[in-house]
Amino acid sequence: MLDASRRVFHEDPTTYPIEEAPLAAYSRAVAAVVDRIGPAVVRVEGSDQGRRQRGVGSGVVIAGDGLVLTNSHVVGGAKRVRLAFA
Prior knowledge:
The protein has 86 residues and is α+β, with helices and mostly antiparallel strands. It is built from 2 helices and 4 strands; from the N terminus they run αβββαβ. The protein has a 4-stranded antiparallel sheet with strand order 3-2-1-4.
């Protein structure tokens, strides 16, 4: 689950130390976000009753009770949905 009160990146790029290259700071910020959000990303597979795969995509856990947000083309018409975490 995301905690918006903890900021992972600087909002003002001028707050980076002068000796630090902007691209390096950006890379570290992106890596920090990936490390933090990565566990909430899931692989989503939708299948019909015959277990034939109908769609594959990704999703994100958006609530503490396990609610996953994904695209409708991944699960549209599916009778079963399988999630895989990293």
